[in-house]
Amino acid sequence: MKDLVEKINSIRNDRTHGAGELSRRALEILREAAQENRSPTTASFLEEMEFICRELIAARPSMVIIASSVGRFRCRLMEYAGRERNIEALRSFAVRAAAGIMEEISSAKVQAVAAAAGLLADGTRMVTCSYSSTILQVLEQAAREKRFPVTVLESRFGAYSYGEITACRLQEKGINCRVIPDDRAREAVAEADLILVGADAVLADGSLVNGYPTLELATAAAERHPRVPFYAVCESLKFHPGGAIILEEGFQLIPSRMIKGIICEEGIIDPGRVAEYSTGPAAT
Fold it and tell me: Among 20, 77, 86, 89, which one is most buried in terms of CB atoms within 10 A?
């Protein structure tokens, strides 16, 4: 149990990885817990898995994909338990369910990345901020065939400069970029053709939750004439079907009116249509 608590706390305290990466870690925790579980009865097994699910969902409230993926696991497990009471069969199913959801997330991310990469052409002046493994993949895929300048806002919050982390990862992939201070967001937008950011959550009204300074970047883009296109890229499991969401420190809410489109595995969708694609935390 101590090891399990430490793993969940590692997600709760992680400030250098994105929501998608942490959701995968949450599913890995569930898979390992199912593999190692030695509960003598189905009831005790389900009780222990339910406890882990609740703790994981509560760990990072701003990262909807954790709640959605864990909720999907819980829903599938309970549905299967309604048909199968054999404890060994249930453990085996739980392991497969966690692995299957990881594959679903990976597939959705691949499709979203491909759609976003298609927006970049040779010479497109692109700006981003914060840290997103999805945006890193978009730029890596686009850079295989195209050459374009990338500007990253420093995205400094607390002890971390997420823009520097992003730039370091891009340089590891051979993609050149420049990092500029956050207070020069308007300057970056004035020279930009396109803005792409990741997402920690997309609310039902199309508004976006993402790390600082996404709001400042979106505001600068919206105030330009003509506007600089501002897109968020993510899997639809990050769509939050409910109302309000808890904003963790360092996260911001960006109004849907500032966003041109949400790019997910379904393609580019209008922010006003997000509710049509929301799967919800307990989706099957």
Answer: 20
* Pairwise CA distance, residues 228 & 211, whole Å: 20
Element (H, E) at 130: none
Report CA torsion sign: 81, 34, 11, 108. Answer: negative
Whole-number mean pLDDT of the chain? 94
Terminal Cα distance for the chain, rounded? 28
Could you read off the pLDDT of 88-131 as tens digits, one per residue?
A: 999 999 999 999 999 999 999 999 999 999 999 999 999 999 99
> Do residues 65 and 102 make contact, with C-beta atoms less than 8 angstroms apart?
no
Residue 235's nearest CA partner among 165, 283, 195 is 283
Domains of the chain: 2-106 (1.20.120.420), 112-277 (3.40.50.10470)
